[in-house]
Design brief:
Length: 281
């Protein structure tokens, strides 16, 4: 509730075009298909043909990674169906997930719900990424055992215990209903290396310990083996949130939405400092 000396500021709702991830003409591309000497392979990372253009795109990719092409644009010209969008998608995949990539067609500019200026502005702000750093307290360790006690009648709260270990120590934690549900949702089992955010209670599954690599004869490609964490279980870790400016606009248009990125008692103050620095720039 605002006091007499404060003015209520209404933030307009930002319209967003919802996109659906589906299998398309370029969803199989994983990169440009170049070797270390920037020579294009015949068939690699979903790319076939256009070897000279892929090599030129590899040179541009190196300049982008070194920061030598900031503030400039790249124009790919050619007849329809020659692979311009495929090369752009390969550059995007080679840069990684942290670099935002926005693909749009000319028909998206003309819409009854959104003006052309707003559509172009939204596309540009989707392509500008912001890294926000936050230091949080986490619990990181290898799961030794999970014990869940359910009432015999089936009615009541579930309780349990979680045993985590590192290379130096082992600790047993009591679990409530929400933590048990979070563990079941992430499909955590003995041998997994997990992190638990103490402020939010979020559980993240990092991978599976190398000591359990021989538990199964065959594993899927999504299985990732990691070392058992070293040191103490509770530690402070710097978390980097990578968001686009458009995502900040959408979240900020909702009430207390931007606070979802942060945790802790000083979340609102950190949010104020970030927006103050963005405004100065």
């Amino acid at each position: 509730m605002a006091t007499a000396g404060e003015k209520s500021v209404k933030v307009p709702e930002i319209k967003d075009i919802a996109r659906i991830e589906r299998i398309g003409a370029h969803s199989h591309i994983r990169g440009l298909g170049l070797d270390d000497s920037l020579e294009a392979r015949n068939v690699s990372q979903g790319m076939v043909g256009q070897q000279m253009a892929r090599r030129a795109a590899g040179v541009v990719l190196g300049m982008v990674k070194e920061g030598k092409i900031a503030g400039r644009a790249i124009l790919l010209a050619g007849p329809p169906g020659t692979g311009k969008t495929a090369i752009a998608m390969g550059i995007s995949k080679s840069l990684g997930k942290d670099v935002p990539f926005t693909a749009m067609a000319g028909s998206e500019i003309y819409s009854l719900e959104m003006s052309k200026t707003e559509a172009l502005t939204q596309a540009l702000r989707k392509s500008i990424g912001v890294r926000i750093k936050e230091e949080t307290e986490i619990i990181e360790g290898e799961v030794v055992e999970i014990q869940v006690e359910r009432p015999a009648t089936g009615v009541g709260t579930k309780t349990g215990k979680l045993t985590l270990k590192s290379t130096e120590m082992e600790t047993i934690y009591d679990l409530g209903t929400k933590m048990i549900d979070a563990l079941l949702k992430e499909k955590v089992q003995a041998g997994d290396v997990i992190t638990i955010d103490k402020a939010t209670g979020k559980i993240s599954r990092i991978g599976r310990s190398y000591t359990r690599a021989r538990d199964y004869d065959a594993t899927g490609p999504q299985t990732r083996f990691v070392q058992c964490p070293e040191g103490e279980l509770q530690k402070r870790k710097e978390v980097v949130h990578t968001v686009s400016i458009h995502e900040i606009d959408v979240i900020n248009s909702r009430t207390h939405g931007f606070l979802a990125l942060f945790s802790g008692p000083y979340a609102r103050y950190r949010m104020f400092l970030i927006f103050k620095s963005c405004t100065r720039r």
